[in-house]
Each structure stands twice: as structure tokens, then as C-alpha cells.
């Protein structure tokens, strides 16, 4: 009789682990992956803002900028104007403000005032001041500061949705 054949002459297939062992291994690996994912997953935004779960290392005054549950979002009208330098460069800016609804009863009024402040500011800005990531960050900080001052702190943040310069 030849090696690898049965008494009736049919070829024998090599035997592997049974299907049940494969399924058990698959379930174990899936459970371990889920457990590791839960342990190493980043915290959600709400858990990061929860004062009870904060580390002592985050006590750098970031609580003031935290967005409260009473905050609302309001879209400001789009602003289209030319820059201060060069005069032929135009900018279109679309922003939204996050404000405390208990402190700011009429967001439409403040939105119009903030939009006018932004318009006046953009007319003094040169292209080199808003170029690159540092320029965009400086623009964002300046607009946030102006919105906060105009609203006496009721506007928590001014979000730049789109910025097009041409």
C-alpha cells in the first residue's frame, strides 16, 4: 500500500485543526482586541471636560474656555472685504459664535456687531499676517478676543468655518 492512501485506494487529505478550535480562537482574539481598544481608546470630549475626571496636570486655567452645556451656536453673516495690504486681495470669512445663552439673550444683535468688528479688523490685516498655520492661529486668537470683548465674555469662542483669500 502506498503512503498517504486508504485501504480502498483513495487519497487521504491532511487533517487540520477542527473548525470549532478555529472559531474559539477567533472569539478569544476578538474579545482581547475589544478589551485593549477600550483600555487604550481616547477619552470622549465630555469626559475630558468633566471636572471630576481631570488630572492635576490640567489645572492651567483651561476651565475658563470650557464650553458649558448652556452654550449655543449662532452663525454670523459671511464677511467679504479686501485686505489692508495688498488692496487687490479679497477675503471671505464665514464664522460661528459659541455663546452662553443665559448671558446673551439676543445673539442676532451681537452677531451683527461682532461681524462689523471683524470687517473693520480684516481691512487692516496684510496677507503676510494670515499666511500659514501661525497666521491662521493668530487671526483666530484675535477674532476670539474681539468677540469676547464685544460681548463682555458671553461669547466663549468664535469658530472659523471657512476662510477664502483670493
List the helices and strands and how they pair.
Layout (H helix, E strand, L loop, with lengths): L18 H22 L4 H5 L21 E5 L3 E4 L7 E11 L6 H16 L4 H4 L1 H19 L4 E11 L1
Antiparallel strand pairs: 1-3, 2-3, 3-4
Helix pairs in contact: 3-5
What is the 3D shape? elongated
Please state the second-level CATH architecture of the largest domain.
2-Layer Sandwich
Query: What is the residue-mean pLDDT, rounded to a whole number?
Result: 80
Low-confidence stretches: 45-64
Number of helices: 5
Query: What class do helices, strands and sheet pairing give?
Result: alpha+beta
Q: What is the C-alpha radius of gyration, as a whole number of Å?
A: 30 Å
Distance between the amino and carboxyl termini: 86 Å
Strand content: 15-25%
Total E-strand runs = 4
What name does the CATH topology of the largest domain carry? Tetrahydropterin Synthase, Chain A
Report on the biggest sheet.
4 strands, antiparallel
CATH superfamily of the largest domain: Band 7 domain
Helix content: 25-40%
* Count of domain modules: 2
The SSE order reads: HHEEEHHHE
CATH class bucket of the largest domain: Alpha Beta
Describe the structure.
By secondary structure, the chain is an alpha+beta fold. The protein has 2 domains: 18-66, no CATH class; 67-165, Band 7 domain (Tetrahydropterin Synthase, Chain A). Helices cover 40% and strands 19% of the residues. The chain has 5 helices and 4 strands. The protein has helices at residues 19-40, 45-49, 107-122, 127-130, 132-150, and strands spanning 71-75, 79-82, 90-100, 155-165. Strands 1, 2, 3 and 4 form a 4-stranded antiparallel sheet that branches. A hairpin with a 7-residue loop joins strand 2 and strand 3 (90-100). Helix 3 packs across helix 5 (132-150). Residues 45-64 have low confidence and may be disordered.
Amino acid at each position: 500500500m502506498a503512503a498517504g492512501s486508504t485501504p480502498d485506494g483513495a487519497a487521504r487529505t491532511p487533517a487540520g485543526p477542527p473548525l470549532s478550535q478555529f472559531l474559539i480562537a477567533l472569539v478569544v482574539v476578538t474579545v482581547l482586541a475589544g478589551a485593549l481598544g477600550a483600555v487604550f481608546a481616547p477619552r470622549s470630549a465630555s469626559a475630558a471636560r468633566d471636572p471630576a475626571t481631570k488630572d492635576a496636570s490640567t489645572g492651567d486655567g483651561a476651565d475658563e474656555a470650557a464650553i458649558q452645556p448652556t452654550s449655543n451656536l449662532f452663525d454670523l453673516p459671511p464677511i467679504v472685504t479686501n485686505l489692508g495690504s495688498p488692496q487687490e486681495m479679497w477675503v471671505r470669512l464665514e464664522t460661528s459664535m459659541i455663546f452662553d445663552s443665559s448671558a446673551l439673550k439676543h445673539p442676532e444683535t451681537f452677531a451683527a456687531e461682532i461681524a462689523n468688528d471683524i470687517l473693520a479688523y480684516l481691512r487692516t490685516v496684510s496677507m503676510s499676517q494670515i499666511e500659514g498655520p501661525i497666521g491662521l492661529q493668530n487671526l483666530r486668537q484675535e477674532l476670539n478676543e474681539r468677540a469676547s470683548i464685544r460681548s463682555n465674555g458671553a461669547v466663549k469662542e468664535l469658530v472659523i468655518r471657512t476662510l477664502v483669500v483670493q
